[in-house]
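Same chain as my last thread, 379 residues:
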Amino acid sequence: MTISTTWRLFRVGLLGLMLGGTHLVDAGTEAPAPKADDKRFFQPKFIKKQLLKATQWQLAHPKHSGTDWTNGAFYSGVFAAYETTKSKLILDSLMAMGERNKWRPGPRYDHADDIAICQTYLNLYRLKKDQRMIQATIDTVAKLRRVTGREVREHGLTWWWCDALFMGPPVLAKLGAIQKDPSYLTFNDSLYQQTYRHLYNHQEHLFARDAGYLWSESGEGKKESNGKRIFWSRGNGWVMGGLVQLLNELPQTHPTRPFYTTIFKEMSARLLSLQQPDGLWRSSLLDPQAYPGGEASGSGFDCYALAWGINQGLLDKATYQPAVQKAWVALNGLVSEDGRVGWVQPIGADPRRDFSAESWEVYGTGAFLLAGSEVIKLK
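reply #2:
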């Protein structure tokens, strides 16, 4: 049996399980699922090939405006794929994206979604040292620091939804490092801690998507069909991915670093307990049966973050590496032969829309690329 045939069988079998039934392959034989410790999936050559394939497919299938938050997440992954593969094609594509965007963020200076793309501008600046690549980012953040905007007026805080903790903090932290100006980190701490106090659940060690998912003291609020609180996988995946990129920038001696590492460890332990037997996470973390399909974008960010935690010595290898291995094998089962990452939950505040093997979004590819960029570093 060829490797490509094995992959085809695995994907069919995995997706059949996600659909809630036994899926039989062409000859009527049940598809075998490879073991999570199968070394083929962790060979650097294989991982680099998968990263290149997924990047190339997604670059050939653009979907949103260049500065959209979806592309902020996607190009974060593309840059990680470049760092892993050193592909000139990927680097040229990154530079072309910046030139098309004129190195500008989106139009809303105070909305975290619109500065997510700036993560990649800042990463590329570190390679090219061209000030025009980051000047608009500097100017936008300066306005954010100076002028109270619509988000605060309407929601009481700037980063009022948990996804913002991936979009905004890495930009402020990278700027602080590049400019050698710790005031960016102080500003980030202020905004981050407001969101943390508002949305973090200290019993579940998860973030609510926004205030609409918080419960009253009497226990009234949105609930899943099993009566539990609603915590979306992708939103918490965004938080985990943002913590990785933030902690990569924070100096080891920075006074608030323990605050972020504590959140990271608490959430990692909780996510470990919520991983499903196939290695993926479900859209609703506390009610996995409500959305039985394994979801690629939340799972990709979780795999990325847990692998990074192991590589940085923040998470116990013996405890977490088996989970990362299972997740990485499962994620590869969601990638088509031509590189499309499927089973990605569509855009929306909640996953009330169906998604399937045919569902793809650029941020799902970004999460997959980030995951591979850390899995390849596991020892």
